[in-house]
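In response to reviewer comment 3 from the previous cycle, which asked for concrete evidence that the modeling workflow produces usable outputs, we include below a single protein chain processed end to end. The sequence was submitted unchanged, and the resulting structure tokens are shown without manual editing.
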Amino acid sequence: MTRSAAIARLLRQWQTGRMTRRELISRLTALGLSMSAITALLSACGGSSSSNQSNSASGTQSTEATAKPSPIARGIPDYVDKTKLAKELNFFNWSDYIEPGLLDEFERIFGVKVTQDTYDSNEDLLAKLQGGATGYDVIVPSDYTVSILIKLNMLEPLDYSVIKSISNIDPNNLKPYYDPENKYSVPYMWGTSGFGYNTEAIKQELSSWKDVFEPQPALQKKIVMLNDEREVIGAALMYLGYSINETSDEALAKAKSVLMQQKPAVLAYTSNNQTDLLVSGEALLAHLWTGNYIQAHNQKSTITYVIPKEGCTVWQDNLCVLKSAPHKYTAMVFIDFLNWPEVNGRNTNYIGYASPNKAAREQKLIDESMLNDPKVYPPQDVWQRLQWIKDIGEATQKFDRLWTEVKTA
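The workflow returned the following structure tokens.
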């Protein structure tokens, strides 16, 4: 993520009530803005409306504000049937996982208003869908969750006469184990789940899950873990030398013991604000996805990211259409739009995850600093110790019970 994108993100968080004015000023100062520049920037922003946010994002160089992204220079493609487009689309996505301006761009180009709801984990997504939540069109499940949704017959086959931008995706990201023909899913973003820490506060170099599960005294109540049972239990299993998908009672009992012993040092289990807690200093170490690291590092350069020597999760999030979607054709158009190179590049630069869009990379639409960062795009030797989370069937109930016992203890 560029510095300008980091500033835009902070402004948006402040304007939507997710950050105090004092915290915003602190973060902008950490990014190198002078107080005079910050004062001018906040004056330009005014209130918290989206229009004010747009004004702030188009500030001048004298205020060091961010530049408003250029509009997507395309109209409706010839292969899209305008008469089939709905007036609205309902998008169910992870928190803070799309550049918000792109939803406005889709509406400008196609005349479709996108309403977005968010969830915190794949289990949260599944629970809501299986609990009867309706009205959603496009969802963003991770790899193993796609497998589950296919088995539950909840996904609509994709229409590649509309999703022509599939041709922009790197072949290495296509035909995954969970959907071998990409019948139901198109890659969105991918990454790893390691941990980040503040090197200014923690002088010792950290390299292992042991540093997370057997924390030094300085980390008491300073650790944040993802609010995700497969990720957290999986990390404990890898620390113990097991596969991330191990389901034996013996292994899970040991994993529970590790998590219970770690819990007094845990400040929070969250998948929403782990970046904020790390940047503010409330947390000194956080279980993170790679995009969280990019976001945190661009706000505080002393934050680094570790893929532990024991390994960690590698994952791929996907764009899917629900079988119950009320606007299926428009959903296909939306997925096509998100994989246009210029759209993917803008989105990737904002959210900070690794992109499967080969065309966006080759056209240099993604920040070079991200493309060259081995923490974001791991080299082959690191790939050897990465593991995919997979559907474990009925054994999921064991993970559910274990997670509940840890969270409520």
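The two ends are 38 Å apart (CA to CA). We consider this sufficient to address the reviewer's concern, and the full set will be provided in the supplementary archive.
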